[in-house]
Design a protein that fits this description.
This protein is of the alpha/beta class. The protein folds into two domains: 90 residues, Methylene-tetrahydromethanopterin dehydrogenase, N-terminal domain (Rossmann fold); 151 residues, NAD(P)-binding Rossmann-like Domain (Rossmann fold). A seven-stranded mixed beta sheet has the order 7-6-5-8-9-11-10, sandwiched between helices. The protein has a five-stranded parallel beta sheet with strand order 2-1-3-4-12, sandwiched between helices. Bound molecules: NADP nicotinamide-adenine-dinucleotide phosphate.
Length: 287
């Protein structure tokens, strides 16, 4: 029986990136649907549920992608609400690369390290990758601070994290370097930059003047990078006593995580691969 991956997303054109990655992960065929509306999900999912039955169900899986993460989250919920009993197929959520990127970022930081009791600052943590990274770092035992340019926005995201994941994160406002320096003085050990492409979050003078800072990671691959003095290829490189991880080295791990997750989908018919289970898979890989 061929391994079929049904790719659903709300963007008009289904992501080429996700389809290529699916084939590289060993999928035999991708059935890609772009422009998917919420009310079309049930019928699409029925097509996966009612065709192969029993043991055969594990050879069909669903991937939820798309650049609009909140809409993709609604598609994900609708897919899961459509299943009943054992009549289901495995599902993976990775809209805009959010889950696999957060898993790779946090695994780079946590690999072979004990993060319990460390203080982590997720800079520009209000986007999909930042939110997921903050939760994973908190689950690793860090005290997590999450920044936004607007305090209200940081508070809103922190409330969302508390209500939906039961995880405590501290909201902070960072508008410029002065604010970063002030927060770093709280004894921050880890800075994870999750800002939009081309947004510099941390300058060289500020990070080099923060003695508590041990690890700096950045997932923005578009110049200027999120951290001044960082190289995208940094992979544990030391500068002034601090360890650096850049967007390309994190991105390379992200690709491995993505492929491993797609492969895993076909091991059973009832898997739900969301940010936490994808992180568990990432932890099995060498970072
Ligand atoms: N390396 C990889 O493999 C990979 C994969 C996926 C994504 N990425 C990268 O990961 C980063 C995060 O992705 P995402 O989708 O979570 O990001 P996003 O939602 O586009 O942006 C994250 C946050 O950045 C802040 N921001 C936006 N413009 C800014 C500006 N001009 N100056 C300062 N802050 C600004 C916003 O926070 P506030 O408005 O709350 O301040 C926003 O919530 C992006 O750089 C993306 O390209 C990398």
């Amino acid at each position: 029986m061929k391994k079929l991956l049904i790719h659903l997303e709300c963007d008009a054109q289904a992501s080429v990136f996700d389809q290529v990655t699916a084939y590289d992960a060993g999928v035999d065929h991708v059935l890609a649907y772009g422009g998917v509306q919420l009310d079309q999900v049930t019928n699409l999912v029925y097509g996966a549920m009612f065709t192969r039955g029993g043991e055969g169900l594990r050879n069909t899986a669903i991937f939820i992608g798309g650049t609009n993460v909140p809409i993709a989250e609604k598609l994900m919920k609708k897919v899961q609400d459509t299943f009943f009993g054992d009549v289901r197929v495995s599902v993976m959520f990775d809209a805009n690369g959010s889950n696999t990127t957060a898993a790779a970022l946090v695994n780079k930081i946590a690999y072979k390290r004990d993060l319990k009791g460390k203080k982590a600052l997720v800079l520009a943590g209000t986007g999909p990758v930042g939110i997921r990274s903050a939760i994973l770092l908190a689950k690793e035992g860090c005290e997590v601070f999450l920044s936004s340019r607007q305090l209200e926005r940081a508070k809103e995201v922190v409330r969302h994290i508390q209500i939906n994941y039961g995880v405590e994160v501290i909201p902070v406002q960072i508008e410029g370097e002065k604010d970063v320096a002030k927060i770093l003085k709280k004894g921050i050990n880890i800075a994870a930059c999750c800002g939009a492409p081309g947004a510099q979050m941390l300058d060289l003078a500020t990070w080099s003047d923060a003695p508590s800072l041990e690890i700096i990671a950045d997932i923005n691959a578009v110049y200027p990078l999120g951290v001044e003095g960082m190289k995208v290829t940094d992979n544990g490189r030391e500068r002034e006593g601090k360890i650096f991880y850049g967007a390309i080295s994190i991105g390379n791990l992200k690709m491995k995580v993505h492929r491993a997750a797609v492969k895993t989908l076909f091991e059973n018919n009832n898997l739900v691969l969301d940010f936490d289970s994808i992180y568990e898979l990432a932890k099995k890989l060498e970072a």
